[in-house]
Amino acid sequence: MSTVSIPDFNQTIPIDSVGVEERVARLNKRSIKTESKLQGLKLALSMIDHTTLEGSDSEGKVIQLCKKARLPYAPMPDLPTVAAVCVYPNMVATAKKALEGTDVNVASVATAFPSGMAQLHIKLDDTRYAVAEGADEIDMVISRGEFLKGNYSFIFDEIAAVKEACGNAHLKVILESGELETYENVRKASDIAMYAGADFIKTSTGKIQPAATQPVTLVMLEAIRDFYRETGIKVGMKPAGGIRKAKEALQYLVLVKETLGADWLNKDLFRFGASSLTNDLLMQIIKQETGIYQSNIYFSND
Amino acid sequence: MSDQKTKSTKTEEKANGIPKPTSPNSDLKLDYSSFWNYSDAPESSDKVVIEDTYNHFINGEFVEPEKGRRFASVNPATEEVLSQFAEGTSEDVDKAVKAARKAYKNVWSKMPGRERGKYIFRIARMIQERSRELAIIESMDGGKPIRESRDVDIPLVAAHFFYYAGWADKLEYAFPGRKPEPLGVCGQIIPWNFPMLMLAWKIAPALATGNTVVLKPAETTPLTALRFAEICRDAGLPDGVVNIVTGAGQTGSEIVNHPDVNKVAFTGSTQVGKIIQKSLAGTDKKFTLELGGKGANIIFEDASIDQAVEGVVNAIFFNQGHVCCAGSRLIVQEGISDRFIQKLKDRMETLIVGDPLDKNTDIGAINSKEQYERIKTYLDLGGKEGAVMHQSSCDLPQNGYFCRPTIFTNVSQSNRIVQEEIFGPVLTIQTFRTPDEAVQKANNSPYGLSGGIWTDKGSKIFNTGQQVRAGVMWTNTFNKFDPTSPFGGYKESGVGREGGLHGLYPYVNLV
Amino acid sequence: MSDRIEVLKTYKTYVGGKFPRSESGHTYPVKDSSGNKIANACRCTRKDVRDAMVVARSAFSGWSSRSAYNRGQILYRIAEMLEGRKEQFQKELELAGLKKKVAAREIEQSVDRLIYYAGWTDKISQVFGTVNPVASAHFNFSMPDPTGVVGIIAPDNNHLLGLVSVIAPVIAGGNTCIVLASESNPLPAITFGEVLNDSDVPGGVVNILSGIQSEMISHLSSHMDVNGVWNAANNSDNRKQIDENGALNIKRIIHTPVVDWADEKHENPYLITNFQETKTTWHPVGN
């Protein structure tokens, strides 16, 4: 593992967008029924980074969120918890306390989220602060402006520095694919992030449209696969933003299953960054178990 | 530049017998099967009625075969008999040709193009209305996965009728400086790999140009053609314009050799194509032949590799590889060959082989026992020829004719598995070093139906694409079909084009 | 009249840009319409067909990859050279029994027909190519592409015009060819070879053999490296044999038993497209 050589990021790996989209369309044809559907829905639930990232966030709101994370649906206490809650750094301590005694991690966005338009030392301070407050996971953003300028070593160094600042916390690197425009850029940013030390790569902040898309996710999963072949290191994947429906979540899981396989089908290597997805998964799980279609008025909006 | 240098060094090393350095973790396995496997998702066939017996469709009605002989149509996924259909004899064929002639003379050739077109539009619409039923029957009768019959075959069938319907009253614009006239009665013989789609390719342009038709579907897949006959009847198509006579090779021969047939259109093997061409010698019958292929799929090292892998999967595993234009020869540049093959093997592990009616099935049943045996013969032959065979590790159903996706490496151009059309999910893989070598290998075949080129470099696509002698070049894609796009082969892959404006030529005389 | 002894012309074949004698070493007499012998012509055999095939095949890739513009220029050049040799053809056609005026008209029409096809070379793919509006995210176009090596059985009437009318469309489209000259009068065909040789036509693009057609047709039409046959002989006896042999390797076969090549309807682009394949190319449209 020690002899991993870093590729030349000025070289572009060609990606045909029509081919990527055709592949996704074909994967979307997978029909997930009966037991595999129920299993998939529960799996998706366990992979959620239950998220609130609003300027209006309050301690009260974060505590509510954590309660939902610990026990997504009271009538069914055996359901899995979500994987993590994801909050701003100043809410980390609140979340940490609210989740005490559970397996649910606290993830914090950092590095001048969502724009990343700040100096490196500020980003590092932001990161250290979140970690010090108790964050288990840090979701950083890359400097898209520098990336689009072609300043790839800047991006690499920044990620490496943030990784160091994370200490034991896991680092997720947000590419903000919606601002990178092409799949080739997404691929390149994925490679830079992984070689610089990312534990996860993540599509989006959720603040920019388009946020997560399946084609972008496929391109990133393929990057992870190539990185694994090259280094033996398993990097995780997190699509985030815009995933609201259980059906889409299952489609994402199909992408993972058929690109990376079973090893990635767990919360250690795959996450959904989402807020309203939780309830739709719950409604579908109950529909699967009871045969009765559900209404969202019976589910808390936390 | 430095990148190039490294690669050529690699090549030389291999030439010196020193193994090429591969990825440090090439032994890593990706596990595609141990967790979260898809439950069965069968498309229900409850709403589809298949009769115990079927008759010919002649002169607008279903008629008993004169001699009363019948064949069984078998579901290749279960080996169960689906139905008994009529064997057409010379009497049946003669009756059908007479009906077609009468309809041609009295009705169809006299009808204004606009009205003809409206009938064809009607047919297109009715196909859309009954699309799921047709898709299910197609999958039951022929073994192809419902995902393909539902999403590829039947939508293309409807699109084909729509496209040619619109030509019926615009033919004067299709042939610069000449006036088109219909030929008369067309005898059409179609294969079992795309039963309904091949029917559309044959019947739609024939009707649009004012001809009438006697069509024989393949003996292993007659059922959708007989459903189509119902659609013609429901659409009010004048009696005798479309006649469907079922049967095997002998029935086909009766159609080809019937003296009152003006044109023969055949899709099938090159071997039978040659017999047909020979039997038409000295006659004035026009003919088009869509025959076999051994398409070369060339992957350059600058290709978008993951999409190219997917392209190879589409090229050879689409429709169980029962595709005349399949990319059955992979020709991959040496520098990326190991990586490419590894990715292809990974991808093959995710292909689901099984029940054609299951919505998740990627590779259905081999169309018939005969074809299954033929493929098996080639699999054995590959080993004898010294090739290295790799198959995916998927489970196969207990009954029915199924074949795992298969690749052969360590093959030579002279091997029969490289030269001959296998018509199954079997790919041979060769490597090349220079574009010239790739083109030379691609063209080293009596066939010339399809070819594929994968590179990120536009000028290389045009240069290589010009040199490969094949009727359809898929560049950075493969096995795409569209009614507007002409299809057909060079050399022994056939004569004439089907689809698009070019698909009208074989059905007219220009005066 | 001087008492100088006239130098008679030896009629050979035209193969690979050279004028070899037949491998057989035999000739046969060519007679005028009254039955008087006017010259000897090479009596080519299957071996000459075989040798011509080799050079026609090797000339194909070069000729077919020339620009359409360049092929047009060369066809025009053939017309120029023919115009310059009118007198020679006049003499040969008259020798074979044509009336002076008829012969002159035939030569003029031959020149004009060459110019007609010279103009088609860079238009054929515009008129017969298409951009196909497929429903998926692909750009798709179809272009005519020459079939390969075409065997031509030249007409036995209009010895110059008929010959030009079958060679011009075949080579205008980028094919190379082997021509079995009119059996009764191959002399204008061999002389036309001299015109071709002076016209920048690469060696091997047009190969002209004389002889007894029935001795060569079966070998030409069954040859597995010939891609197409244009049978312009008005002789229904050969037809079935050519068709049957063609089936050996799915040859493209055209029969044009034309009575009068002077008729303008025998001058059209569909005679080019008879020996064109349609190649359709797909490419994704994306970023």
Structure description:
The complex is a heterotrimer of chains A (302), B (511) and C (287). Chain A has 302 residues and is of the alpha/beta class. In chain A, 46% of the residues lie in helices and 11% in strands. The longest helix of chain A is centred in the last third of the chain and has 18 residues. Chain A is globular. Chain B is α/β, with parallel strands linked by helices and 511 residues long. Chain B has two domains: 257 residues, Aldehyde Dehydrogenase, Chain A, domain 1, CATH 3.40.605.10; 191 residues, Aldehyde Dehydrogenase, Chain A, domain 2, CATH 3.40.309. In chain B, the strands form six sheets. In chain B, strands 14-15-16-13-12-18-19 form a seven-stranded mixed beta sheet, with helices on both faces. In chain B, strands 9-8-7-10-11-21 form a six-stranded mixed beta sheet, sandwiched between helices. In chain B, helix 13 links the parallel strand 15 and strand 16. In chain B, helix 3 runs antiparallel to helix 5, helix 5 packs parallel to helix 6 and helix 10 crosses helix 11. By secondary structure, chain C is α/β, with parallel strands linked by helices. Chain C has a single domain, classed as Aldehyde Dehydrogenase, Chain A, domain 1. The termini of chain C are far apart. The model of chain C has no long low-confidence stretch (mean pLDDT 96). The chains are: A alpha/beta (302), B alpha/beta (511), C alpha/beta (287). At the A-B interface, helix 1, helix 2, helix 9 and helix 10 of A face helix 10 of B. Strand 19 of chain B pairs parallel with strand 10 of chain C.
